[in-house]
């Protein structure tokens, strides 16, 4: 695997949410939490939010916005991402473990 895999994304411009069909096996409660989190983010600051797995299985929150979008809140975006990384840490860690086990085939290590 040489490229990133998008888990989900929300787009304020098209007012759409996307969940990669490869992750349909996630529990409904997790899918709903992701949808709410992403849509609320784009409602607050605008732009596009993507949750992406890198080749090692790390979950990254990527933000983009259209050039000339004066309504996009860059400072709010940075603050909101930091807030999500803190408040959703457990969710993100669980998603990383899920991805590593089911997509990268890593065995779960005993601690």
Tell me about this structure.
This protein has helices at 28-45, 74-87, 89-102; strands spanning 5-11, 16-19, 48-53, 59-64. By secondary structure, the protein is α+β, with helices and mostly antiparallel strands. The protein has a four-stranded antiparallel β-sheet with strand order 2-1-3-4. Helix 1 (28-45) runs antiparallel to helix 2. The radius of gyration is 14 Å and the shape is elongated. The two termini are 27 Å apart. 19% of the residues are buried. The model has no long low-confidence stretch (mean pLDDT 92).
Q: Give the ordered list of helices and strands.
A: EEHEEHH
CA(first)-CA(last) distance: 27 Å
Low-confidence stretches: none
User: How many β-strands, per DSSP?
Assistant: 4
On the 0 to 100 scale, the average pLDDT is 92
**Major β-sheet profile:** 4 strands, antiparallel
Can you list the strand order of the major beta sheet?
2-1-3-4
Helix count, per DSSP?
3
Radius of gyration: 14 Å
Structural class: alpha+beta
Q: Determine the oligomeric state from the structure.
A: single chain
Number of domains: 1
The helix content is: 40-55%
Strand residues, percent = 15-25%
């Amino acid at each position: 695997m040489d490229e990133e895999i998008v888990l989900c994304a929300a787009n304020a411009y098209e007012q759409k949410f996307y969940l990669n069909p490869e992750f349909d096996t996630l529990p409904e409660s997790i899918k709903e939490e992701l949808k709410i989190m992403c849509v609320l983010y784009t409602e607050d600051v605008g732009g596009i939010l993507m949750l992406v797995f890198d080749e090692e299985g790390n979950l990254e929150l990527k933000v983009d916005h259209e050039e000339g979008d004066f309504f996009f809140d860059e400072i709010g975006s940075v603050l909101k991402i930091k807030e999500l990384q803190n408040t959703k840490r457990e969710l993100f860690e669980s998603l990383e473990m899920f991805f590593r086990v089911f997509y990268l085939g890593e065995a779960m290590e005993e601690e």
